[in-house]
Amino acid sequence: MLEGLLLRSLTRLELNSENGVELARGHPIELIEMQERLDFIVVGGRGGGQILCLASGALLQIVAVMKEPKRRTMGEIVRDV
To answer: Residue ranges of the alpha helices (H) in 16-81?
Structure first.
């Protein structure tokens, strides 16, 4: 069951990664909560190899999505200087 949920989450994150700014601005609380849950799985080494692999992939996608608005903001600040 957890494996299916992680696969679904990873797929949705990958499909929406191009719209990372909108995803991060529209659902920041959900992304942070998901990141905390995935940290619990990955850092704690919970589950088998497949679960850890899916959780790690989803965690990397969340980190990338959450960094995109920061990168764009920094780019705007640099351009304005």
So the answer is: 20-26, 28-44, 49-80
35 neighbors 79 (Cβ within 8 angstroms): no
Helix (H) or strand (E) holding 27: none
**Whole-angstrom Cα distance, residue 54 to residue 76?**
34
- Taking residue 63's Cβ as centre, other Cβ atoms within 10 Å add up to 12
Q: Could you tell me the CA-to-CA distances from 65 to 9, 31, 45 in Å, in that order?
A: 13, 9, 24
Tokens of 44: 């704690």
**pLDDT tens column, 32-81:** 999 999 999 998 887 788 999 999 999 998 888 888 767 666 666 667 65
Rounded to the nearest 10 degrees, what angle do helices 2-15 and 49-80 cross at?
30
Compute how many other C-beta atoms are within 10 angstroms of the C-beta atom of residue 68: 18
